[in-house]
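User: I'll paste a sequence; please echo it back and then give the predicted structure.

Assistant: Echoing your sequence first, then the prediction.
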Amino acid sequence: MTNLALSELRRPTERGYHAAYREHDINHCPGCGRTHWIIGRVSAECAFCATALPLAEASRQPGPVIIQHKNRDQHAWAA
């Protein structure tokens, strides 16, 4: 990531609108306006239109979230 990109992330007023699911608020879906969510570890998904939002609490971690698969060397075969 360049220094310009890092400095833009640190200035939310210049970054623009950033939709995030906040745990103790009523969260309306930006896609359909409803309020029913399926909550995961790092994101919340609207139960009606499947719009996904990052959790505001998960974005406080330093650095990006890295997902590593245990069986990435093995091929997944369809049944």
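The longest helix spans residues 3-10. The chain has two helices and three strands.
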